[in-house]
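FORM 7B - TANDEM STRUCTURE REPORT

SECTION 1: FIRST PROTEIN
SEQUENCE AND TOKENS:
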Amino acid sequence: MANLKEIRSRITSVGSTMQITSAMKMVSAAKLKKAQDAITAMRPYADKLTELLQNLSATLDADSGSAYADQREVKKVLVVAITSNRGLAGAFNSNIVKEAKRTASEDFAGASVDFVTLGKKGNDILKKSGKVVHNNNDLFDDLTFDVVANIADMLMEKFSTGEYDKVVLLYNKFKNAATQVVMNEQFLPIMPAAVDAEEAQAATPDYIFEPNKAEIVEELIPKSLKTQLFKAIRDSVASEHGARMTAMHKATDNASELKADLTLEYNKARQAAITGEILEIVGGAEALAG
């Protein structure tokens, strides 16, 4: 059994750790509220814009398709892995890294796969493969639509010039504070709604297009893609704070249990020491009396 000094030292250490994890939990909870409000407010707009674009794209003639809808033989793939700059968030970052490796080895086994990493944690691991062509850690310091739009422009250029035949987004979708869903989402080429042209035409409201449908779609596509990427990053940020809050909550509970166990062990050791001292005194007194 450890001596009393060692146990007291461990109790103090665990208590300090518990204070830190409890403080981190409260900070993440405060940040989560803001991030959750942001993604909740954005989702309806982003989803409706994507739905509108898909419905319109499905009714376009094949020869009027956008450069961003060009379906090519998949020889080179660009995987955008969205993680965070900080750890202590449970499996938040490792899930994306695992999905990135799985996507490269299974989904596109016959193609050349490169990575764009948004977040330090994903980059630290994926760069070891030597296939990270771009990394951006600073966007989380001041996350704005304009910053994300620049990244989306880069991705669109790499696809439209033929450098890559497919672009995929990997990110954690926020469901609630305790649950994040890993998303593997095609970014480029854009996919029309999964219906034939007649069904799409029947399902699409009777819009009046000015100047024409093709030009409107061409204007909507870049905006929709930028919004899609921004939503994915917003989802990831909210998921990060939720994952960290949950991880710190569990860490605080574990520290509390460990502290209770150590306190019990300390009390037992202290009682044993006191009992031993009493026995020594009694034994000494009996020896003197004898």
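SECTION 2: SECOND PROTEIN
SEQUENCE AND TOKENS:
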Amino acid sequence: MLFNLSSSEVALNLINALIGIGISQSTHRKDSLRFIFSSLLLELPDLTTAKSINLADSSSDDLLPVLKYIEENFATTSLNEVSEIFKYNTNYLGNKIKTNTGKTFNELIERRRLSAAQNLMLKTNLNLSQISETVGYQNSSSLFRLFKKYLQTTPSEYKRRVHPKVPDSILKQINS
């Protein structure tokens, strides 16, 4: 399989973290590697150059601008809003997205929010409330549920495993 990593900073950061931890002598190296690799596996399906959207089907050509809009506006958009902007019936657009991507509108939004949150956790010192707000949630409990659903961990545990040397004082700030 081939993956287009140029479009995903999170995937690139996870690969860099795998390499960095792989050559380190950390006592938590094995657990960290396993955790980062599982996070990377969640990112890769969206990056396959194989058929995730059937580009040979001419009816999916008009879906590409819709998907691009969703990608760029994931924090604030809804299916109703996208339907209005692109002049589709809401149910029709939802079904078209599911048929062509294999994911529902909400799954696309959740995965994009998770990806953005992971990226913010890797690159910034924002706390969980700030990250939640940035990715489109009104409170951090929604982001907490998202991490549990897709990564089977909490945001602070994710940060600890990705950055094993992060002091506990910073992790407490992340959760506040």
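SECTION 3: OBSERVATIONS ON SECOND PROTEIN
Residues 125 and 174 are 8 Å apart (CA to CA).
The chain is about 65% helix and 0% strand.

SECTION 4: SIGNATURE
Preparer initials: ____
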